Amino acid sequence: MTKNIKEQWRQFAAWVNGVENDEPVVTPEEKRAARPHLPGFVHRVLSEKNELRLYHAFSAVMCLVFTGTLLLTVLFLPTFGGAGNPTENEVMERYVEKGIEEVGATNLISNIILVYRGFDTFGESCVLFLAATCVMILLRKDEKNTTAYDLAERAEDAEIESEENTTVLRSVVRMLMPVILLFGVYVLLNGHLSPGGGFSGGAILGAGLILFENAFGLEKVRRFMSEHVYHIIKVAALYFYGFTMIYVFFTGANDLHSIIGTGIPGMIFSAGVIMPINVAVGLEVACTMYAFYAFFSKGEL
Amino acid sequence: MSNAIATWSGDYYQVFAIILFGIGFISLLLHKNLIKKIIGLNIMDSSVYLFLTSFGFIDGRVAPIVADPSVPVQMETYINPLPTGLVLTGIVVGVSVTAFSLALTQRLYKKYHTLNLDEIIILAKREEV
Predict the structure, then answer these.
(1) At the topology level of CATH, where does B2-128 sit?
(2) Cβ contact (<8 Å) for A265 and B85?
(3) Which of A149, A155, A170, A297 lies 20 to 30 angstroms, CA to CA, from B24?
C-alpha cells in the first residue's frame, strides 16, 4: 500500500517536472561527469553529495547576505507613509494640482501615463507588440515548424474535443460573455474618470476572448478575429497612438492651437486624447493576451 | 537592535518586499526546472513593484482620483500618483518577458523532452559532438 502511494507520488512529481516517460533522458553518470566542480581541494576532500550540499549552502548564504544588506538599507529609508518624504516634491505637486487644468482627466494617473509620460506608455505598448511577435515566431506551427508528432497530437486533440460534452460550459459562456465584454468596454471608456484604463480593460476583454475560445473552439473565434484582423488591429492601434502622441507633443511644446480640447472635467467626453488612446491600448492588450493564449495552446490564431 | 525592529515594523511593506525578493532569488538559484526558475523571476518582479508602490503611499490620503473637479485640487488630499504610473510600465514589461521566456522553454521542451536545465545542457553538448 505504502509502496503504491510512493509510486504514485513519484509519477505525480515526474509529471510536475515535465518528464514524459519514466526513462531518464540523461543517465546519472553523464550528469555526474558534466557537473561543474568546486575548486580542486574541496573536490578532493568532500564526497559528491556533500559537494552538492556545500553548493546549496553557498547559494543560501549568498541570498541571505543579499537580503540582509537590503534589510539594513531599509533602516535608512524614509518612513513608510510619512508626509514630507523626499518623494513628495514639486513633481508630484505639478502632476496633482495642474493635471486637471492641463489635461482634463479626473483620474490623475491616467494624466501621467497617457499624456505627460505618453511616450513611455507608447514604448510599453511596443514592448507588448514585440513580445507577441516573438512568441509568434517561436511557437507558430506552420509547414516548417510541424513534425509528424505534432500532427498526431493535433489529431488526437481534435478527436478529444469532438467527443467532449461542453453543454454546461457553452451555456454559461453564452450568459457570461455579454457581461464580460460590457464590463471590459466600460473599464476602457471610463479610464479617465475611474480606476481602470487601457491595460486593465484590455486584459478583461482578452480574458473574455480566451473564455470564448475555450467554449466554442478556434473556428468560431476566427469568424470575427482571424489572423488578418489581428494584425490590422495591432498595427493600426500602435500607429494611431504614435501619431496622436506626436501631434499632442508638437502642438503643446510649440504653443500651437490644438484641435483637441480638454472638455469639462468629469464628463465622459473630456480629457482630449486620453479616451481614444485608452481604446487603442486596450485593443492592443486584448489582442496580445489572446495571441499569447492561442499560440501557447494551439500554435495558431 | 530594538531601534531597528521598530523601524522594520514601521516599514513593513518594504521589509516584506525584500523578503519576497529573497524568496524569488533563491528559487532562481536552486531550482533546476526552467518553469520554476521563471516563477522565481516573477516573484522577484512582484517584490520590486511592491517596493516601488510603497513609496507613493502617504498616511491619511486617498487614491489620486478627483471626485469633484469643480473645486481646486489640493496636493495634501492625494497620495503620490507617480510610483503607481511607473509600476504599470513594470508590470507590462514583466508580462512580456514572462511570455517570451515561457515560449523559449516550450521550444526547448519540444526538442529535448525535459525541463531540467542540467540535462538540457548535457543534451545540447552531446549534439555538438
Answers:
(1) Helix Hairpins (1.10.287)
(2) no
(3) A297
Provide CB contacts within 8 A for A39, sequence distance 6+: none
Rg (CA), chain B: 21
**Phi–psi pair at B116, nearest 5 degrees:** -75, 125
List, in sequence order, every residue forming a beta bridge with B13; answer none if it has no partner.
none
pLDDT of residue A195: 86
Q: Which of A106, A139, A296 sits opposite B66 (nearest CB)?
A: A106
Give how far Cα A155 sits from Cα of A150, A161, A298, B123, Å: 9, 10, 12, 29
Q: ipTM of the predicted structure? A: 0.85
Least confident of A3-7, A68-72, A102-106, A264-268: A264-268
Bridge partners of residue A107, in order along the sequence: B65
CB contact under 8 A, A26 and B21: no
- Grid coordinates representing B62 are 486617498
DSSP A41-52: HHHHHS-HHHHH
Question: In a mutagenesis test of the A interface, which of B1, B15, B18 is the best target, namely the one with the most A β-carbons within 10 Å?
Answer: B18
Place of cell 548535457: B122
CB atoms within 10 A of CB A259: 7
Cα–Cα nearest to B47, from B98, B87, B86, B79: B87
A112/A255: higher pLDDT: A112
In the DSSP assignment, the letter for residue A36 is: P
| CB contacts, 8 Å: A71 with chain B | 8, 15, 18
> Under a CB-based contact definition with an 8 Å cutoff, are residues B30 and A56 in contact?
yes
The SS3 assignment for B115 reads coil
Measured between alpha carbons, how far is B123 from B127 in angstroms, rounded to an integer? 6
- Overall residue count recorded for chain A in this entry: 301
How long a stretch of residues is chain B?
A: 129
A86 with A78: CB under 8 angstroms?
yes
Tell me the pLDDT tens digit for each residue of B88-99: 889 999 999 999
Q: Report yes or no: A139 at the B interface, CB cutoff 8 Å.
A: yes
Cell of A40: 580542486
The predicted model scores a pTM of 0.84
Could A25 and B15 be called an inter-chain contact, meaning their C-beta atoms sit closer than 8 Å? no
Q: Which residues contact residue A294 at a Cβ distance below 8 angstroms, ignoring those fewer than 6 apart?
A: A213, A218, A300, A301
- A98 contacts B85 by C-beta, under 8 angstroms: no
